[in-house]
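testing teh design pipeline on a random one, pls ignore if ur not involved
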């Protein structure tokens, strides 16, 4: 009698690494390439994960606690586990894209970060019931930004994430993936050899085409201009949106204050600055009135050579806690792949972490259920670590719970004590 392997077709995965492997097999090479992407020689993207592996844990053998809590209040919202969805653009890994991710975030009670370069509209995403924080780059005229903020607020966004770190680092040693301007017949013929062997991915988009008559869209619906009759105009293509962004003069700290105040007037909900690496920038952000800071090197996609985000967390978190009397939440993103990574980030002072690639792989592997699976893997890992460390709550995590090698932290831009006046 032939015994079937019961796990063979089981879409559940036990680790983020397994989800990544399924995503690699399932996705066309250019799409997978866009996910693993790091800029230039990939030093920062590599360090983001390697640095977590340098940190150790020292578990107890007896005295573990039967009940453990991961509930965390961050940016004014209490979430069941300290893992938030980081905004990522162009989610062509699955036809449901950001809507599937938002449903998973809602199902697991966490915050959904929605990119302004997303493939789904903010209205469709908030309709899932997920607590949505809309993310914006500094792109376009101020009036245009006000229109986009107003639209996000009217759609129900409950926070704004301003990502201002991007420095347009273009050269990648591994070669950037090709992204077609439009998914038309010409592009499909050109990309056919790369997608022809990816049956399941093609089938999913084929299903969408049969249901809606639409091909996957490489436009940015959240950057659509107002139309003549009060409705929205045509959304720009990804490249059109990128061009607007590239040609917008970089923001000053006065612009950050303006953006924070404008969002405050429109919505009154938290304003988070993402992409902070340096202590001096973090202190300027506190002065600018932000509610939160994400220590981040954009997943290693930005200026290569920036240290791993986890190495920069403690210096920034300590300085911000002192300067804001604990009023400004510091979170981090970059390289989080397991629950113990979350625990390490919290022990070094982060209130929560944001994840990027981990959920994109879950999405590619199994849609909404795959994203939920990733969130469950992480929260399961947090629980194991709390149990091993004999703690009852993530709130108790401190640096003493980790083995931290000498010279681990990277304190960038620490002001002279006299100059800082703090
Ligand atoms: C494919 C991809 C697209 C991204 N797009 C955005 C974006 O539109 N806005 C943004 O603020 N960050 C963006 N990021 C950065 C993520 O929000 C986050 O900082 C990063 O992915 C964290 O690192 P991790 O992927 O190792 O978790 C993107 C990252 C990836 C991998």
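output:
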């Amino acid at each position: 009698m032939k015994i079937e392997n019961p796990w063979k077709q089981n879409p559940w995965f036990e680790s983020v690494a397994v989800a990544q492997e399924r995503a690699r097999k399932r996705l066309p090479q250019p799409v997978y390439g866009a996910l693993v992407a790091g800029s230039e020689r990939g030093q920062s993207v590599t360090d983001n994960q390697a640095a977590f592996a340098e940190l150790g844990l020292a578990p107890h053998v007896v005295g573990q606690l039967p009940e453990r809590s991961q509930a965390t209040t961050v940016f004014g919202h209490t979430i069941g586990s300290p893992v938030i969805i980081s905004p990522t653009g162009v989610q062509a890994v699955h036809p449901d894209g950001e809507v599937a991710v938002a449903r998973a975030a809602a199902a697991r009670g966490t915050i959904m970060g929605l990119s302004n370069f997303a493939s789904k509209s903010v209205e469709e995403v908030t309709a899932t019931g997920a607590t949505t924080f809309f993310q914006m780059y500094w792109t376009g005229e101020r009036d245009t930004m006000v229109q986009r903020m107003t639209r996000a607020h009217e759609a129900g966004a409950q926070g704004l994430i301003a990502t201002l770190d991007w420095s347009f680092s273009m050269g990648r040693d591994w070669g950037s993936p090709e992204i077609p301007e439009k998914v038309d017949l010409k592009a499909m013929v050109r990309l056919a050899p790369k997608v022809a062997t990816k049956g399941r991915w093609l089938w999913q988009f084929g299903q969408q085409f049969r249901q809606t008559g639409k091909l996957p869209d490489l436009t940015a619906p959240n950057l659509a201009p107002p139309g003549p009759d009060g409705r929205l105009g045509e959304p720009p293509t990804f490249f059109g949106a990128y061009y607007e962004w590239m040609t917008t003069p970089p923001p000053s700290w006065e612009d950050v204050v303006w953006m924070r105040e404008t969002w405050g007037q429109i919505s009154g909900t938290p304003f988070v600055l993402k992409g902070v690496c340096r202590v001096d920038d973090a202190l300027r952000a506190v002065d600018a009135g932000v509610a939160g800071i994400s220590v981040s090197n954009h997943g290693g996609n930005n200026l290569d050579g920036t240290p791993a985000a986890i190495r920069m967390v403690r210096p920034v978190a300590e300085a911000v806690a002192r300067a804001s009397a604990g009023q400004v939440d510091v979170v981090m993103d970059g390289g989080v792949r397991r629950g113990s990574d979350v625990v390490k980030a919290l022990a070094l002072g982060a209130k929560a972490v944001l994840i990027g690639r981990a959920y994109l792989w879950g999405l590619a592997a199994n849609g909404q259920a795959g994203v939920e699976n990733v969130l469950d893997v992480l929260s399961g890992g947090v629980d194991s670590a709390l149990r091993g460390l004999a703690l009852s709550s993530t709130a108790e995590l401190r640096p003493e719970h980790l083995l931290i090698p000498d010279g681990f932290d990277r304190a960038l831009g620490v002001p002279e004590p006299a100059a800082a006046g703090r």
